[in-house]
Task: structure prediction
Amino acid sequence: MPESPLSTAQAARAGITSRRDEMRRDAGLTGQEPAVRCGRHNGESLPHRSKLRPGR
Result:
């Protein structure tokens, strides 16, 4: 039986997360340092695309 698209997407997401974490550790960063360096603090997330205005 073929994999469902959902499980394929979940597996891809898990692979990306694993690779991101590996790169972060190799760089000697904590879990929060990349967010802080990007100006995000205390678990803030990116604004939803509906909140973004083109040309600004």
Summary: The chain has a mean pLDDT of 81.
